[in-house]
Design a protein that fits this description.
The complex is a heterodimer of chains A (345) and B (110). Chain A is built from 15 helices and 8 strands. With 345 residues, chain A is an alpha/beta fold. Chain A has one domain: Alpha-Beta Barrel (TIM Barrel). Chain A is globular, with a radius of gyration of 19 Å. Chain B has a domain of 70 residues: AhpD-like, CATH 1.20.1290. Chain B is extended and about 60 Å long. Classes of the chains: A alpha/beta (345), B mainly alpha (110). Chains A and B meet through α9 of A and α3 of B.
């Protein structure tokens, strides 16, 4: 499977995705109206607690739902210069958490430097890991590296059965994921008292919303232990965002309208209030600043007078900034909410 | 009318409240309470609903509870077993009436 960009698919262009999302013929209640009715408009940041650094679109997998349109055929990666700007911002602020994502972030040559620098500055570091990357010959010491720096591993595993996981992430990915979890467990990850956190991420393998987090977490825990003898700390449930490849899937399978209706009907003011963009600042591979990773993929940088590049970072102008919203934001406010840390209510 | 059943009608279910709003409201409250987490989990209730939907052969309910089961974290193996439970009961219900047939036959026979 190739990225939408490599296929020269119209939806590879963020503007085309926004056109679909805002198409009057497919109109759903405006997200800003929903915020207004909840007394949350305009949505503003409550303070930057997470610096989420997307180091690029290069990945060893090509997942069918990927909002980044990442894959082996993508070559946009963060340079050392931009990574250094991120670390300079970290040094001049007290942002407690660094969340490194991609693509497969570990494939970026700056990844390990970002981890070690962030830890030197005493920050908590999260690695959004696709698991299979741990088995690549070039990454054979990755697990040891992550354990050494006590990096929290947040790993995608959409279901505890191979057929479902492989349907979304590619043939054979489930088995590789289990092997990688076993490797991480061997280093202490996911085991109580080790201080090494391994959290898994569930997202629906199709055009439906995620189940309650606690309920599916119990299933994952039981099934992964019984069938494969592996353990983890927590399971986060994340809603599929109607952008990029998942949007292409929704349109191609005639599920778009129904899925958007579901998201709109499931709008939850409490989820909107706790939405992750309120405490996150997202940095793109080229240093551009966004309110979240989804806005990043839609090419919607921070706005309303906030500085738009990491080199121009001014804490006070970003800490309470107004957030850029759109119809896709329903993906984070449906039901129990959805963020990079799972449900938000 | 091309078909008696239309997918879009599922979303119009609420229109049934128009001429009997109080009854509709009672139904809604009761329906909502039935599917709350209780002695059975919401997921178990959803699987039961899926099975019953097949037993009563309601396409709206099959659509709604297929989606709901997926949304509750059930997989196709579990959902298929639920449909088999409904089917087994339906089949068994026919078969057990065979005893009535046998009784009548016995009564009439020498």
């Amino acid at each position: 499977m190739q990225s939408l960009l490599r296929q020269q698919h119209p939806l590879a262009v963020p503007g085309e995705q926004l056109r679909v999302l805002n198409d009057p013929a497919l109109a759903h209640r405006s997200f800003d109206d929903a915020l207004e009715r909840s007394g949350l408009h305009p949505l503003t940041s409550t303070g930057i607690e997470v610096l989420q650094i997307n180091v690029g679109k290069l990945c060893n997998q090509t997942c069918k739902h990927c909002h980044v349109d990442a894959g082996p055929d993508r070559n946009e990666v963060m340079t050392r210069e931009t990574a250094a700007l991120c670390m300079a911002v970290l040094e001049q602020t007290e942002i407690p958490t660094v969340d490194i994502t991609g693509g497969a972030p570990e494939l970026n040559p700056q990844f390990r430097w970002l981890v070690s620098e962030s830890k030197r500055l005493g920050r908590h570091v999260m690695d959004r890991c696709n698991l299979s990357v741990l088995l690549l010959p070039s990454q054979k010491d990755l697990g040891t590296f992550l354990a050494h720096y006590q990096v929290e591993v947040v790993a995608s595993l959409p279901y505890f059965m191979a057929a479902y996981t492989d349907a979304q992430r590619g043939e054979g990915v489930f088995d590789k994921s289990i092997e990688a979890i076993r490797l991480l467990n061997g280093l202490g990850y996911g085991r109580e008292g080790s201080g090494l956190e391994l959290n898994l991420v569930y997202n629906p393998v199709g055009a439906f919303l995620p189940p309650p987090q606690a309920s599916i977490e119990a299933d994952f825990r039981r099934e992964l232990l019984v069938r494969h003898g592996v353990v983890f700390n927590s399971l986060y449930t994340i809603t599929n965002m109607p952008i990029s490849r998942f949007l292409e899937f929704l349109l191609r399978t005639d599920n778009y309208d129904r899925y958007m209706q579901k998201l709109v009907q499931a709008y939850n003011p409490a989820a909107a209030s706790g939405v992750m963009c309120r405490n996150t600042l997202s940095v793109g591979w080229d240093g551009v600043l966004y309110d979240c990773d989804f806005n990043q993929m839609l090419d919607l940088p921070v706005s309303f007078g906030a500085p738009v590049h990491i080199r121009d970072f001014v804490h006070d102008r970003l800490d309470q900034r107004r957030i850029v919203t759109g119809q896709h934001c329903y993906g984070c406010t449906a039901g129990a909410g959805s963020g990079c840390g799972g449900t938000t209510v | 009318m091309s078909s008696y059943y239309h997918e879009d009608d599922l979303a119009r279910f609420g229109e049934m409240g128009k001429n009997a709003p109080e009854l509709w409201e009672k139904f809604q409250d009761w329906y909502g309470a039935v599917f709350e987490e209780g002695a059975l989990s919401q997921r178990e209730k959803s699987l039961i609903a899926l099975a019953v939907a097949h037993a009563v052969q309601c396409p709206y309910c099959i659509d709604a509870y297929t989606q709901d089961c997926l949304q509750k974290g059930s997989n196709l193996d579990q959902m298929t077993e639920a449909v088999h439970v409904a089917s087994a009961i339906r089949g068994g219900a026919s078969l057990v009436h065979g005893l009535q047939m046998r009784n009548v036959t016995q009564k009439l026979s020498m």
